[in-house]
Design a protein that fits this description.
Strand content: 25-35%
Structural class: alpha+beta
Number of helices: 15
Radius of gyration: 28 Å
Distance between the termini: 6 Å
Oligomer: single chain
Low-confidence stretches: 1-18
Shape: globular
Mean pLDDT: 95
Helix content: 10-25%
């Protein structure tokens, strides 16, 4: 095919058009954060898109505690001066003055571009610092009420009053809890965050939140109230009715800091003067749902002057504060609402509401009726083949919310300390005729900004992308969980690591993973073993599974590649190194890691009637050795990035021994693997475990295996993420497309054809005859197999990064049309701005449009039959068009 047209949009816009300003000002990945725990916070910004080839040549940052002083350039805490650098992402504070706690700092940046043309100072941004452990004078308080610790008891309500004696300049509430909390001040809810303080390794890292309550306080008397829920702290967790994982009593720690306009300050804290009672939240549990009796509401209990004479004094307890940390990841919030698509009667006569989308959150209920009327909502992901409500796959999780009316007229209910995974809701006890206006689906997840989108000319692939994104929404609820509906919902490390790269395309997950990786390090054993789940709530021995524990190395490296974040490598390096050392200790002098249980290629496809041994069984020790090598390689790369030269040499020697052992134990002299499975060849090829001379033949054997299964995959959790990448790397893009477009089981599109709206746990969660897989483990919202999204972004849309210049500072645009596609587009909001690709084939003409954000460069690799054509370009818009035959 011969190119007949290429268009480049070149040239800089005139300087007088520099009215656009610097944008995207962030501190530690957040816009104007109320609480930063980092001692040396980092700053990022985006340059305006002023034309082609915009590159930052210098920058200057200044910081002050006064916005007025900042704009005038006086009384500065830090003035970086003009620094010759193109860095505009994660520039660390380097002032000589340590930042004070509980202080707001204002900052702005200006830059010079290209030959020194200035762009004026940005708008003012700000951040606030958190508290040091010594800043906490509040005391932990607990309810003195009698409770049955074997079940969910009524939620404790804690309250107190305090007087504000002066005109308020600003006020902050610093608060955390054992359990979950919701706070009110003077009758109004504090903040929008849900399920606070989040889920961490509570006894080692307990987050606190900060809220601006300036507008909620008044001069004179004020009241504060806090409701507590069991949550992950002491609710049912894991299996077999296990409760009280972290403690038996719920408690709160709160500190209000008020600054008056006259310069004086006041502090109000939890302590002896608080009282407790119970109210309408009769029971609340993550797995089982919530019971709310509106007749028990205590009207005005968070208003000053409320009569609490019959309330019980709280118990003051002494817990350490050294492990309190400012919130790191994004809070869980309500993200969107969904209306029902239908209400119907099942063959069993049950009233069921279909929301049309498998989602995570809850149902907002609106109803009116007689006092004492009990309305019950049951939640399920699917219907059985007869069309009946199906809950067997939930195992012991009840997923049931109950609301008891107080009879006051139109009443609205939303649960407080629980969430459900569901598409369908069965309604019992509703007074009158239920309509779509009575129920609204509320979608919740960690408030990560959407960053990527993929679309193409095939509707099934577009639905697959939709399912991948919704699987991420449903399972990124403060921790990366395996599933959001049954009695599990744990931070399985294997699921998290296989999906991490796809996750980073769809959403901004930098802060989300930073928070979770802190718990990975905290829960790692002294020997370096990483638990199966983080936070660790399983048995002490449930650690060290290959492909799962490697999340400790793979995810920090993924965050570094995606965001150019070297600090996460520095912070996680001891954890990464400890994991590799753990494997090395287990391998011993022969360098074969054959100790410790591993899950292997979890949920791989296996022939039901396998009589000749051809099923896709991959030797577990082979898998362990492969990941041993891969994590060691990533550790070497990490050591090189952060300047640990001795470790580069040490672990390079180890990697050589590990690879030699792999070849000795699992590869025949002719290059065959002892496990003739797709996963075995995928791991060996993706991790470069074979000599280069043997790799083409191994790739050919992988293809032969795929063809023998009539273009079906047989991989499980560990092989699937790399499958299409390996095929593309070795020139088998057509085979990758054949797998992607396969519509029969096992394949990515089989669930789509079966009506899935999220990713399934199993390739055949619902069989072709409508029957279900094993009810003991059959989630319909499990994102692991959604890892194919990474390949779709990289190879169909063509958005790739250069590992040597991470964070998309240099992008590689390399679309690879294939299959029956005639069009595809990809968008990714990088730390520098939006990177977009859009290609189509029409009338035998291939057209590609690309936008490269300012302060970055790209290699645009055009697909041609005669060989790739490469263009090195700077920021700007580019269009290419040529004949395609």
């Amino acid at each position: 095919m011969a190119r007949f047209l290429t268009i480049f949009l070149t040239g800089l816009l005139p300087v007088w058009l520099f009215s656009q300003s610097i944008s995207g000002l962030k501190c530690e990945y957040q816009e104007n954060p109320l609480c930063i725990g980092a001692e040396n916070p980092r700053f990022s910004w985006m340059l305006p898109a002023l034309g082609q080839n915009i590159v930052q040549s210098s920058f200057q940052i200044r910081i002050s505690t006064s916005e007025s002083d900042l704009k005038k350039g006086r009384n500065l805490i830090w003035d970086s001066g003009k620094i010759l650098s193109d860095q505009s992402v994660n520039v660390a504070y380097a002032g000589q003055t340590p930042l004070n706690s509980a202080t707001r700092y204002f900052w702005q940046v200006r830059v010079w571009i290209n030959e020194g043309k200035p762009i004026p100072w940005s708008e003012t941004a700000w951040f606030e610092t958190g508290l040091k452990p010594s800043d906490w004078t509040a005391m932990w308080i607990e309810s003195n009420l009698s409770e049955d610790l074997k079940k969910s008891s009524p939620s404790p309500m804690l309250r107190s009053e305090f007087a504000v004696n002066g005109k308020i300049r600003d006020a902050r509430l610093y608060i955390t809890a054992h359990g979950l909390y919701e706070a009110q001040i003077n009758g109004e809810r504090v903040g929008e965050d849900l399920l606070t303080p989040g889920w961490t390794s509570y006894n080692k890292r307990l987050q606190y939140q900060v809220y601006d309550i300036t507008d909620q306080l008044r001069q004179g008397n004020n009241a504060i109230g806090v409701v507590l829920g069991d949550g992950w702290y002491r609710g049912f967790l894991v299996w077999q009715n296990h409760r009280n994982t972290y403690g038996e009593k719920l408690g709160a720690l709160a500190q209000i800091e008020v600054r008056y306009t006259n310069g004086k300050t006041a502090r109000f804290t939890t302590g002896q003067n608080w009282k407790s009672a119970t109210g309408p939240v009769i029971a609340s549990d993550i797995y089982n749902g919530e019971t709310y009796d509106a007749r028990e509401e205590k009207m005005g209990w968070t208003l000053p002057g409320y009569d609490d004479s019959d309330w019980t004094p709280v118990k003051v307890v002494d817990y350490p504060k050294e492990h309190l940390i400012a919130q790191v990841g994004p809070p869980v919030r309500k993200i969107q609402e969904i209306s029902p698509v239908s209400i119907f009667q099942t063959p069993k006569g049950e009233t069921v509401v279909d929301f049309g989308q498998n989602m995570v959150g809850w149902v907002k209920l609106t109803a009116s009726g007689k006092t004492g009327t009990r309305i019950t909502l049951y939640h399920a992901e699917v219907l059985d083949k007869a069309g009946n409500f199906y809950t067997e796959n939930l195992r012991a999780a009840k997923q049931k919310n109950e609301y008891i009316l107080n009879g006051s007229g139109t009443e609205t209910f939303e649960p407080h300390f629980t969430f459900q995974g569901f598409r369908y809701v069965k309604v019992e006890g509703f007074p009158g005729t239920i309509t779509k206006d009575n129920l609204t689906g509320v979608v919740i997840h960690s408030a990560m900004a959407p960053t990527g989108n993929f679309s193409c000319s095939d509707s099934l692939l577009n639905q697959l992308q939709h399912n991948i994104q919704w699987g991420q929404k449903g399972n990124f609820v403060d921790v990366p969980t395996d599933c959001p509906q049954r009695d599990e919902r744990l931070g399985w490390t294997g699921d998290a690591q296989v999906f991490a790269r796809t996750a980073a395309f769809n959403m901004d997950v930098a802060a989300f993973y930073t928070k979770w990786l802190g718990d990975v390090a905290a829960d790692q054993t002294p020997e370096g073993a990483v638990p199966y789940v983080i936070p660790q709530v399983l048995r002490a021995k449930d650690v060290g599974s290959a492909g799962w524990a490697d999340a400790a190395v793979i995810i920090p490296w993924t965050v570094y590649l995606t965001y150019g974040d070297t600090r996460i490598l520095e912070n996680q390096y001891p954890s990464m190194k400890a994991w590799v050392d753990y494997m090395a200790d287990g391998a011993g002098e022969n360098y074969l890691w054959d100790t410790v249980f591993t899950f292997g290629d979890w949920l791989f496809y296996s022939l039901q009637d396998d009589t000749d041994g051809t099923s896709a069984i991959t030797d577990k020790i082979l898998i362990k050795q492969a990941f041993f090598a891969y994590s060691t390689e990533l550790l070497i790369k990490t050591a090189a990035v952060i300047g640990k030269k001795d470790d580069v040499e040490k672990y390079s020697r180890l990697l050589g021994r590990v690879k030699e052992t792999f070849q000795r134990e699992f590869v025949t002299p002719s290059g065959r693997l002892v496990s003739n499975s797709q996963t075995a060849y995928v791991l060996a090829l993706n991790f470069d475990l074979l000599p280069e001379s043997q790799r083409p033949a191994a790739a050919k054997r992988l293809v032969e295996n795929i063809r023998s299964y009539k273009n079906h995959l047989t991989t499980g959790f560990l092989g699937t993420p790399y499958l299409c990448h390996v095929l593309s790397r070795f020139g088998y893009e057509d085979v990758a497309y054949d797998l992607l477009f396969q519509e029969t089981y096992p394949s990515w599109l089989y669930p789509v054809k079966m009506g899935a709206t999220t990713i399934w746990e199993r390739w055949d969660g619902i069989r072709p005859d409508g029957s279900f897989q094993n009810v003991g483990m059959n989630s319909f919202n499990h994102y692991a197999y959604g890892a194919i999204g990474d390949w779709m972004y990289q190879h169909i849309a063509g958005i790739q990064l250069d590992p040597s210049v991470p964070g998309y500072k240099k992008a590689i645009i390399r679309p690879r049309p294939g299959g029956k596609l005639t069009h595809a587009s990809g968008k990714l909001l990088t730390m520098y701005g939006e990177l977009t690709t859009d290609w189509k084939i029409e009338a035998n003409v291939f057209s590609l449009s690309v936008v490269i954000p300012p302060n970055t460069t790209a290699s645009i690799v055009l697909p041609k039959l005669s060989g790739d054509e490469i263009h090195q370009v700077g920021a700007g818009s580019y269009n290419f068009s040529y004949e395609w035959k």
